[in-house]
Amino acid sequence: MLSVSTDSHFTHKIWQEQELSKMVEGGVPWPMLSDSGGRIGTLYGVYDENAGVDIRGRFLIDPDFVIQAMEVMTPPVGRNVVELIRQVQAYQHHRATGEVTPAGWRPGKTTLKPGPALVGKVWEVWDPKKEMGEG
Amino acid sequence: MPEPAKPGYSCVTPARGPLAAPEATGAPAAQAVPEEKKTVQARVGKPAPDFEATAYQAGGFKTVKLSDYKGQWIVLCFYPGDFTFV
């Protein structure tokens, strides 16, 4: 986990000490990166030149250094960490087994083995009401 | 894979920002990206654009390269600013 904003590393230190450490015991453990000038945000397509800040953008990068997922949001709405963790679990499951995860998949729910035998048969093995419900 | 730099307590050298991929330049080590290449390079299914930044972690300042974390799952989160509300 790495966090990035256009604030300086000095500002990150004060934010950690004055506020974050009061919400998370010991403060956040990951490196807080400074992107002053927005050059890194520009590279990732999340730098807002008018506001001079990096907007909310999240990138999931696999061990081969390939971007597998991204989510970019405007400032007023916060992220859903539960969805991020779900995506990490799904990509890790795929990487380990080659199986794919249907919409709304969570650990323990049905995964699919792609191949000729499954064509036109997904409805037999995957019931959206059962798989995507609260249960 | 190089270990991420250990946190230091003194001033750090200014970080270089975006880095060119070694295979793109043929150079053995990552180099700062020339001005004309500073466009959006992040795409799903493509290699993550590498960069270097100054960071605060565990009470110290250090220079972090994204590729220091190659071989692990990485979550890279941008946000509008420290002390904002959401």
Give an overview in words.
The complex is a heterodimer of chains A (135) and B (86). Chain A is built from five helices and six strands, in the order βαβαββββααα. Chain A is α+β, with helices and mostly antiparallel strands and 135 residues long. In chain A, the strands form three sheets. Chain A has a two-stranded parallel sheet. A two-stranded antiparallel ribbon of chain A has the order 3-4. Chain A has a two-stranded antiparallel sheet with strand order 5-6. The longest helix of chain A is centred in the middle third of the chain and has 17 residues, at 81-97. Chain A starts with a strand and ends with a helix. Chain B has 86 residues and is mainly β. Chain B has one domain. Helix content of chain B is 5%, strand content 28%. Chain B contains one helix and five strands; from the N terminus they run βαββββ. Chain B is globular, with a radius of gyration of 14 Å. The model of chain B has no long low-confidence stretch (mean pLDDT 81). Strand 2 (32-34) of chain A pairs antiparallel with strand 3 of chain B, so a sheet runs across the interface.
Could you tell me which chain pair has the largest interface and how many residues each side has? A-B, 60 and 47 residues
**DSSP summary: helix tally of chain B:** 1
Radius of gyration of chain B equals 14 Å
> Pairing-aware structural class of the strands and helices of chain A?
alpha+beta
Strand order of the largest sheet of chain A: 1-2
Oligomer: heterodimer
For CATH, the homologous superfamily of the largest domain in chain A is named as Glutaredoxin
N/C terminus separation of chain B: 36 Å
Task: Kindly name the structural category of chain B.
Answer: mainly beta
- What is the CA-atom radius of gyration of chain A, in angstroms? 19 Å
Low-confidence stretches of chain B: none
* Elements of chain B, N to C (H/E): EHEEEE
How much strand of chain A? 15-25%
Identify the strand order in the major beta sheet of chain B.
2-1-3-4
Shape of chain B: globular
Distance between the termini of chain A: 30 Å
Arithmetic mean of pLDDT of chain A: 93
CATH class of the largest domain in chain A: Alpha Beta
Largest sheet data of chain B: 4 strands, antiparallel
How much helical structure, as a percent, in the residues of chain A?
25-40%
Low-confidence stretches of chain A: none
